[in-house]
Amino acid sequence: MYVKAPVSICLFPAAGYGTRFLPATKAMPKEMLPVLTKPLIQYGVEEAMAAGMNTMAIVTGRGKRAIEDHFDVSYELEHQIKGTSKEKQLADIRHIIDKCTFSYTRQVEMKGLGHAILTGETLIGHQPFSVILADDLCVNGDEGVLTQMVELFKKYRCSIVAIEEIDPSQTDKYGVIAGEEIAPNIYRVSTMVEKPAPADAPTNLAIIGRYILTPDIFDILRETKPGKGGEIQITDALMEQAKAGNVIAYKFRGKRYDCGSVDGYVEATVDLYEQSKKNDER
Q1: Given a cut of 80, is residue 89 above it in pLDDT?
Q2: What percent of the chain has pLDDT over 70?
Q3: Is the Cβ–Cβ distance between 209 and 173 less than 8 Å?
Q4: Half-sphere exposure (Cβ direction) of 93: Cα atoms closer than 13 Å
Q5: Structural contact between residues 135 and 144, judged by C-beta atoms closer than 8 angstroms
Q6: Which of 103, 182, 203, 268 could join 257 in a cystine, given CB atoms 3.0 to 4.6 angstroms apart?
Q7: Does some domain include residue 4?
Q8: What is the pLDDT of residues 205-262, one digit of tens each?
Q9: CA 249 – CA 197 distance, rounded (Å)
Q10: Domain total of the chain
Q11: Is-contact 10 56, C-beta < 8 A?
Q12: What is the 3-state secondary structure (H, E, C) of 141-179?
């Protein structure tokens, strides 16, 4: 139990190849794909900041230098646009750079999400932390998904995963949970299965790219054997915590866009564009 420790750091696994967006991601990180005028990873950082976190830990890989450059000052660019109307377009990213600390480490081999999170241990230390998968873009007009989860962590003090109901035919694309609903939209997890066939799925409650994890997950991951797809799965490690009743699943408020798929990426772009136009008209 981590009674006094706040969640102050967010981990971004960002070493994947983004093969579903080739050739666009041949030379550009998928996390840098823009939705309107901001890259996906910036939306994630802003969500973490809104949840009270100002330390961002990013697990990168080869060809991901653009992420580091984005969260850094560009003196030449800023000099060129200084005093022009374009200067205000950098206001949001400058605010992030001023308020946050960024640290990076590389995942040398792609061995799954569990391995990526374990690679980030050197940046996290022994404290609870959140995880955002940037290609899951979550939008909520009230409060962000991570903010909702931080409030739950204050009460339950254990690992928390965000879930949503999906079409049962899609379970082979997600980690799927089952458990007892202990409060509205809150489940004490008893079972977690990585990408089960629809016939084998315990429910249609799928884990999406938001987690709060307690630091004992690192020791569990070190002992976790490769699972589905020959990769080290975070779902398998979380199942070890769930055996002791230490995993909560939360059906969050808001809408999630799977921007790791072309369909979800286009849907997010259209919806956010329409919302921005409405805001401009007010």
Answers
A1: yes
A2: 98
A3: no
A4: 19
A5: no
A6: 268
A7: no
A8: 999 999 999 999 999 999 998 888 888 999 999 999 999 999 999 999 999 999 999 9
A9: 21
A10: 1
A11: yes
A12: CCCCHHHHHHHHHHHHCCEEEEEEECCHHHHHHCEEEEE
List pLDDT tens digits, range 189-211.
999 999 999 999 999 999 999 99
Phi, then psi, of 9 in degrees rounded to 5: -130, 140
Helix axis angle for 40-50 and 145-156, nearest 10°, is 40
In a domain, 213, yes or no: yes
What CA dihedral angle connects 168, 171, 135 and 253, to 10 degrees? Answer: 50
DSSP-assigned beta bridge partners for residue 186: 183, 250
Q: Give the confidence band of 279 by pLDDT, cuts at 50, 70, 90.
A: confident
Domain of residue 35, residue span: 9-281
Please count the CA atoms within 13 angstroms of the CA of 250 that sit on its side-chain side: 24
- For residue 281, CA distances in Å to 86, 166, 274, 276, 278 come to 21, 34, 11, 9, 5
The dihedral of CA 211, 214, 218, 219: what is its sign?
A: negative
Cα Rg, the chain, nearest whole Å: 19
- Quickly count helices (H) and strands (E) in the chain: 10, 13
Element (H, E) at 238: helix 234-242
Q: How confident is the model at residue 185 (pLDDT cuts 50, 70, 90)?
A: very high
Has residue 182 been placed in a domain? yes
Residue 61: CB atoms within 10 A of its CB come to 18
Question: SS3 for 203?
Answer: coil
CATH of residue 145's domain is 3.90.550.10
Determine, yes or no, domain membership for 162.
Answer: yes
Q: Which residue has the tokens 């139990």?
A: 1
